[in-house]
Amino acid sequence: MRSKEAAGAPSQLAICAGVARYAMRATFRNKAGYFFSFLFPLLFVIVFGMLGHPRPAVRLGVAPEMDLSHPVYRALKAAADQPNGPVLLVEGTPSQLQDQLERARIAAIVAPAGGSPTRVTLVSSGKNPEGRAAAESFLKGILGEMNLQAAGVTDPRFGVEDRILPGRPTRFIDFALPGQIGFSMLSLATFGIGYSLGTLRKTLVLKRMLATATRPLTFVVAMGISRALQAVVQTAVLILVGVVLFQFTLIHGWLTFAEMLVLSFLGILSFIGYGILLSNLATDEHVLPVVLNLFTLPQVLLAGVFFPLDGMPVWVQAIGNNLPLAYLNTSLRKAAGEGLGLVELWPYVLGMFAWAAVAYFLAARTFKTEP
Amino acid sequence: MAILISGETGGDPAAGPSQNIIEVRDLVKKYGAVTAVDGISFSVREGEIFGLLGPNGAGKTTTLEIIETLKPPTSGSVTVDGFDIRREAHAIKQRIGIQLQAAGFYPYLTLVELLELFGVMYGVAVAPLEILRRFDLEEKAGAQFNHMSGGQKQRFSLATTLINRPRVIFLDEPTTGLDPQARINLWSVIREIRVQGVTVVLTTHYMDEAEQLCDRLAIMDHGHIITEGTPGRLIEELLQRGFRREAEVRPASLEDVFLDLTGRHLREE
What we know:
The complex is a heterodimer. Chain A is mainly alpha-helical. Chain A folds into two domains: 15-52 and 171-366, no CATH class; 58-150, Periplasmic binding protein-like II (D-Maltodextrin-Binding Protein, domain 2). Chain A contains 13 helices and four strands. In chain A, α8 packs across α9. Chain B is α/β, with parallel strands linked by helices. In chain B, the strands form two sheets. In chain B, strands 6-7-8-3-9-10 form a six-stranded mixed sheet, sandwiched between helices. Classes of the chains: A mainly alpha, B alpha/beta. Chain A binds chain B through residues 1-2, 4-11, 14-15, 18-19, 22-23, 25-27, 29-30, 199-200, 203-205, 207-209, 211-214, 369, and chain B through 12, 68-70, 81-83, 88, 90-91, 93-94, 98, 100-109, 113, 116-118, 120-124, 160, 164.
């Protein structure tokens, strides 16, 4: 009699590793597809990076009658000449400046004060109280320093020193980039795996592959790992673009970078699990984008991608903060901006694991080989 | 072209030449209210080429997919090489090769990579170039499946059915859509596979193909098997029932004209 044992049934682990390897090779060979999957996240990062980048400088008009040797003018000019300086000087005729002031294009106009060679007049518009406040506080700062100097005080008794505690990122890019990475990876991962499984089903590739010794869960996990590794490569590029172009903060440098990649891998793994699950549930290729959007859109809105959730009702925050994308976004921000390590971020890591476990369990249970 | 299958070739000494490798008993498959397969029974002998014929919707593909353990039956029993399809599906998968009707392969991989991938999925070592050489596809080693001609695709598909050194292979309409030269070529490939001791079960819509290739066949319609036997015996039975063709059959057919004018050698590449 023939042995009833499946002769040398292959290890599912070996199959999983092999399938993941060839799936990855296939994706990297599709160069155009791979490039375009980079393009959108890259555009998002660049656009949002530019949005947050120049800290708004105070735009001050300089009246034409201002003497170039006026001490206040010289102090202003020195501040404006610094790279990324806090002030921008705008010159023009009185009517041009008047017009710009009316349209809030400049915060105020600085003119020499009548009767004093060292004082200035600040002309502002009642229409733009914020501009006036900004111009006034900036000008007072400068005048204060000039007065101290004039009085010969080099070591002022009263003063303020800067100390920034870790907390909410103060720069927009530090808030925006992790959100953009999470958002890009969410849509890339879910839509990418969803559509590619749809094609593999339609062309009977899946059916043929699962007619071998390969079990559905093995195949599902292999696809998840291969896609997640590719997405991690993309995440790395996005972070580097953020660092190079927009001085994105990586508190502990390469260590932070590596931590962000590990976090991304976990987050993406769970997104892919949901992509697989939803592609199982979609009855045909027209339903698929709808269910994928139903999964991704609420997260884009509620998981703190574009804006923090602080202004939302408490119950919305409770939901939003526990979505898989929120775990990824928040943990990325805390790793990059506050320097928290993977161990300190355990609630988020655990959360992403939990979401992923549910996804893969259900995806393997509902897996189908045909459309 | 020599199709050599390394390793075992169905060498169970206890198995006589006429032992059944597939046994189907009272097989039923229902999809909701529709009965696709309605209580069929048949068997396939080891080492033969067995044909399953019938119009579209007769239940051929469903029957094959149940035997291949890709679909569960509603009732009835099926054994393949002594293994039960319900309880020992994984053992059966290891022992059979499958060509699905009009199936594709994983995109963006070369033929060599696809064969390696199948090796991984079956847990066997493969020599991709050797396999491709046996199927006259050596030059296409670095090509992708989607960039090949119809005949090449079907030959490659056939090659993948042998990766796990199966005892039975199932071919679902292997020659549909091929030109006459490619069909004749594929027939000789299938015959050579059989010579190596592999049992072949195929479906087809071409009666000349069934007559040329099959040792035995069953004709299905509306989920039933209407008749079963060798091609020669089925024709004999029809003649005995008094059937005569209306027109005198000429000693040559249009296909003979076509092959005489265009030659029998492969054209695709």
